Amino acid sequence: MMDTFAALAHGMAVAMQPMNLLYALIGVFLGTAVGVLPGIGPALTVALLLPVTYKLDPGGSLIMFAGIYYGGMYGGSTTAILINTPGESASMATALEGNKMAKAGRGGPALATSAIGSFVAGTIATIGLAFLAPWLVDFAVRFGPEDYFALMCVAFVTVSATFGDSPVRGLTSLFIGLTLGLVGIDKLTGQARLAIGIPELLDGVEVTTLAVGLFAVGEALFVASRRHHAEEKLEPVRGSLWMTREDWRRSWKPWLRGTLFGFPIGALPAGGAEIPTFLSYSTERRLTKHPEEFGKGAIEGVAGPEAANNASAAGTLVPLLTLGLPTSATAAMMLAGFQQYGLNPGPLLFAERPDLVWGLIASLFIANGMLLVLNLPLVGLWVRLLAIPQPWLYAGILVFATMGTIAAKPSVVELSMLAAFGVMGFLMRRFDFPIAPVVIGLILGPIAESQLRRALAISLGDPMVLLQSPMSATLLGIALIALAAPFVLRGLGRFKANED
Amino acid sequence: MTPDAASGKLPARRVDRAGVVIAAALAVLAAVLVWDASQLPSTTMYGMGPEAMPIVIAIGLVILAVGNLIDALRGNLPPRESVDPKPVWLITAGLALLIGIIGFGGGFVLATSALFVTTSAAFGRRAVLADTVIALLITTLIYLAFDKLLTLSLPAGPLERLL
What we know:
The complex is a heterodimer of chains A (500) and B (163).
Chain A: H1 2-15, H2 18-35, H3 42-49, H4 58-83, H5 92-103, H6 107-140, H7 145-162, H8 167-182, E1 184-185, E2 192-193, H9 207-225, H10 245-267, H11 274-287, H12 300-323, H13 329-339, H14 347-352, H15 354-386, H16 390-408, H17 412-430, H18 436-458, H19 465-468, H20 470-499
Antiparallel strand pairs in A: 1-2
Chain B: H1 17-38, H2 52-73, H3 85-103, H4 108-122, H5 128-149, H6 158-162
């Protein structure tokens, strides 16, 4: 316990250095500015801004990342409230009530409750992260390669199969990601796989190229292809920005309840902010004294889900930092940020570079505070960003998206891959395949493979090693249940429907 | 585009041709994986060699191809809205232009300006000349900011050498 305080104090000392404070400020500012653009969720925000941090030292860059991460989340909810286009499914509940509030001229309080709720939830969840992480690290040091492999199987299944509309489509996305992860030189034997004679492919598929292609280029193509459908409308912020005493009274309990939903679920290797936000939304709907307002702009329906969303974002950092396990697209991009410096999050990083890890955790607090102070007064500026005409907006997004790739690797092959992933992202959106499992598959696939091969090499090729470790056997059992559950439940649902 | 792209929402319980194409593509991908793995010499004594994982993933892809095929034959895919193919082609052409200009050493400003103008046209702008001027200004500013301030190396062409 005291160790945590000491480590956190040390991290604060790192984060409070003037240069690092400046990095955090730039991160928060850029993260909000990019996150507020419609159609850009936090994952894409991080992916787009990754090249900006190329030239910084790892410490400064990770601190900027913390700011970008929280800033992107904040910007996303502003968009959801003001134009009802949730950039990601976790903002859907916010868009539901928040946009109705904005239409009724209560956009200010909606933005305020979401900002203050995010601050409260983010701060509590980051404290949770600081205390849970060392404990999990102690536990994770004892993990063998077979346990890591089993843990990744759980993440694969829960990320792709359990929570989507269709487990078949989710798993298809995952396997496309796993296939892309195979491309390049095999780290254990030095053999080239799937490089089809192109030397650039020997290095493997770059995570940022995949993410930017799928998210940014794919989204631009998709929006352009269905522009002839409904136009989105920007709600002006009218009336007071500040919350009334009544608003405060109705908001504080949903903030805390949302945090309680968000952090534990986010911290599980199940991932996803969707479940906690919807749990929070339905809970607030049940508990409210103003049920007639729900669906027409109830402040509880913004306060709770926003808090849950932010708390689960901090929660996903728990498996990311302690186990190196990304459970959301955003966490996957954060992992890519670590990897660009050759750093692998996990128990070792806590032991070897405590200044980095605790500096990052400390700057999460700082970023959160900065967002609260910066964003309420600056909301007018963000609204003006939202009013950029669509053609220039998407043209600008694509210029920025390709710039990242051009700066990292200005080769025809890399840019062609970006374009191909863009077309793939467009088709996946069109045919309703989830995008995040592709990115997770690309990042985790090679790690899972090397852990499995290490485990089998230690056991001299005996596959029973996976079942002999109680930890690994349990985790594989969980993965199997999670894989079968949606199919079984769907079968039950059909059975019920037939009986009616 | 897919054959039924323009017909809008499909009636349920009809064979979805696009779905069949997706299933076939997954099967082809699995075949490529198996072929590629068969080219690798197996050298490991214990445990798995580099060829094992591609085979496992290929098996998964085949199972998923069957799953997708079943969904397609039953017409179980979610309904799709109609799409307008023209903007998609415009943006794709913009990306192709960008790749070509970078490939032939035309530089960052020209390449990204081409993408800017085509994308903006895809989203319904008709003022190509005005957009070109805006694009050149914005991309030059980005070039200056990132190349000079953040010292990222962006490819230089004839325009960049003038700066």
